[in-house]
């Protein structure tokens, strides 16, 4: 991917699903609940993210089975 393409490319839910393996319905819920980064751009009602935003989020998000409702057990 060229630098110019990276600067102008915007991913919608379908591309984010393709890259992350997370279903569109789940992504919509994550966005609604604040578990996704804010969209970099919105066209009408459709959010879009730059590839770098999603790749960084994917790299840093908790893995499957993470329980955010549990407090630190060592405290």
**Percent strand:** 5-15%
Low-confidence regions: none
Shape: globular
Biggest sheet: strands, sense, closure? 2 strands, antiparallel
CATH class of the domain at 8-58: Mainly Alpha
What's the end-to-end separation, in Å? Answer: 46 Å
**Lateral arrangement of strands in the main beta sheet:** 1-2
The averaged pLDDT comes out at 86
Class derived from helix and strand content: mainly alpha
CATH fold annotation of the domain at 8-58? Multidrug-efflux Transporter Regulator, Chain: A, Domain 2
Q: Give the C-alpha Rg.
A: 14 Å
CATH architecture of the domain at 8-58: Orthogonal Bundle
Count of distinct strands: 2
Please provide the ordered H/E string of secondary-structure elements.
HHHEEH
Report helical residue fraction. 40-55%
**Number of helices, counting only DSSP H or I runs of 4 residues or more:** 4
Task: Give the gist of this structure.
The protein is mainly alpha-helical. The protein is built from 4 helices and 2 strands.
Topology, please?
Blueprint: H1 3-8, H2 13-20, H3 24-33, E1 41-43, E2 46-48, H4 51-60
Antiparallel strand pairs: 1-2
Structural overview:
This protein is mostly helical. The protein has a domain at 8-58: Orthogonal Bundle (Multidrug-efflux Transporter Regulator, Chain: A, Domain 2). 45% of the residues lie in helices and 8% in strands. It is built from 4 helices and 2 strands. It has helices at residues 3-8, 13-20, 24-33, 51-60, and strands spanning 41-43, 46-48. The protein has a two-stranded antiparallel sheet with strand order 1-2. A hairpin with a 2-residue loop joins strand 1 and strand 2. The radius of gyration is 14 Å and the shape is globular. The termini are far apart. The model has no long low-confidence stretch (mean pLDDT 86).
